[in-house]
Write a structure and sequence with these properties.
With 357 residues, this protein is of the alpha/beta class. It folds into three domains: 2-129, Rossmann fold; 134-288, no CATH class; 292-357, RNA polymerase sigma factor, region 2, helix turn helix motif (Rna Polymerase Sigma Factor, Chain: A), CATH 1.10.1740. It contains 15 helices and twelve strands. It has helices at residues 9-21, 34-44, 69-78, 94-102, 112-118, 132-140, 171-174, 184-192, 194-207, 243-250, 264-267, 286-291, 296-311, 317-330, 338-353, and strands at residues 2-4, 27-29, 48-51, 65-67, 83-86, 106-109, 127-129, 146-153, 212-217, 222-228, 233-237, 272-273. The strands form two sheets. A seven-stranded parallel sheet has the order 4-3-2-1-5-6-7, with helices on both faces. The longest helix has 16 residues, at 296-311. The radius of gyration is 20 Å and the shape is globular.
Length: 357
């Protein structure tokens, strides 16, 4: 397989699963964590390695190393592997997804932005989702009429904060996730609930038209639920680990034990909460966005630009959602081609970074 984003949490778990099932890794792509990459190279011995920056090439203990986005696209095109695991973070992951599909490769997708920004131009029949929420929905699907598909959220770093204090939240505060450690951007997205908006959009592209929603489940033991038209509801319980969806992406006939079962007696009880716009302002546009999912492109671009400003201390935490909503209301041009996706993305980013809104 080709693994994009090998040193992130999903990449690390993918390599654990690959080792367990004896799957060869042809290409490893990573960002700036060269120390971890070199440890991975000792175990997996890929043919080719790609890093983000050219100046890091001499630091990599491998004879065949390239750098940059164009190199990523080229190795995907040239690879013999039929599977590409895309665990890149951000809009950067869209072109690799498109390239993999163009060359008839199956994509195990953890890069949310591919579908959020470019879902209208992606053949989802060749996509296997490895987010736990979409895996859960896929796992639950039956040949029965569906009323609603529901995913769960942890609530992020600020689920228990007094709402009045959110305006003073710092970057460090956003990183204190209640349930696990993730990368910087996705943990910010969890705190704003943008991450869950993105996952709802992904579900819409993956599973088609219908009603979608999300609720907070504080222990992250239920990942998805389906309300059927007959009045029954099924839920997907699993201990939080990316290894389960990754294992099924690599082998749909999975018949081995991957995780320990959830012990409901030890769990004792579960707590569910509503996702409210008062705590998570981005929720105000959820319904309109799901009705017009192609506009996810605008939300993604605005989010990435606003996060850049927040990290550089140019705006406050609540301003992230404000700028996204303003961009969503301002930009109404819809992409007609994949090239439009990239031009609209650029226009939205510049509008926010240059202070035009």
């Amino acid at each position: 397989m080709v693994l994009l984003g090998s040193t992130g949490s999903i990449g690390v778990n993918t390599l654990l699963v690959a080792k367990r099932f004896g799957i060869d890794v042809e290409v490893l792509v990573c960002g700036k964590n060269i120390a971890l990459l070199n440890e991975q190279l000792k175990v997996h011995s890929p043919k080719i390695v790609v890093v983000a920056q050219k100046e890091d090439i001499p630091k990599v203990n491998h004879p065949c190393v390239y750098a940059g986005e164009e190199a990523i696209l080229q190795v995907i095109e040239d690879a013999e592997s039929e599977l590409v695991v895309n665990a890149l973070v951000g809009f950067l992951g869209l072109r690799p997804t498109l390239t993999a599909l163009k060359h008839n490769k199956k994509v195990a997708l953890a890069n949310k932005e591919s579908l959020v920004a470019g879902g209208a131009f992606i053949d989802t029949s060749k996509i296997q989702p490895i987010d736990s929420e979409h895996f859960g929905l896929w796992y639950l699907l039956q040949e029965r009429p569906i009323s609603k598909m529901i995913i769960t959220a942890s609530g992020g770093a600020f689920r228990d904060w007094e709402i009045a204090k959110l305006k003073n939240a710092s970057l460090a505060d956003t990183q204190k996730h209640p349930n696990w450690n993730m990368g910087q951007k996705i943990t910010i997205d969890s705190a704003t609930m943008v991450n869950k908006v993105f996952e709802l959009l992904e579900a819409r592209w993956l599973f088609g038209e219908g009603e979608y929603d999300a609720i907070i489940e504080t222990q992250s033991l239920i990942h998805a639920m389906i309300d059927f038209k007959d009045g029954s509801t099924t839920a997907h319980f699993a201990n939080a680990s990316m290894q389960l969806p990754i294992a099924f992406a690599l082998d749909k006939k999975m018949d081995e034990n991957i995780l320990e079962h959830v012990d409901l007696l030890k769990t004792g009880s579960l707590e569910f909460r509503e996702i409210s716009p008062e705590r998570y302002p981005i929720w105000e546009i959820k319904k309109e966005l799901l009705a017009n999912p192609v506009r996810g492109l605008i939300v993604n671009a605005a989010n990435e630009a606003a996060i850049e400003l927040f990290i550089n201390k140019k705006i406050g935490f609540l301003d992230i959602s404000k700028k996204i909503i303003t961009a969503f209301e301002k930009f109404d041009t819809l992409p007609k081609t994949i090239d439009d996706v990239f031009s609209i993305d650029d226009a939205v980013r510049r509008s926010i970074l240059e202070g035009k809104q």
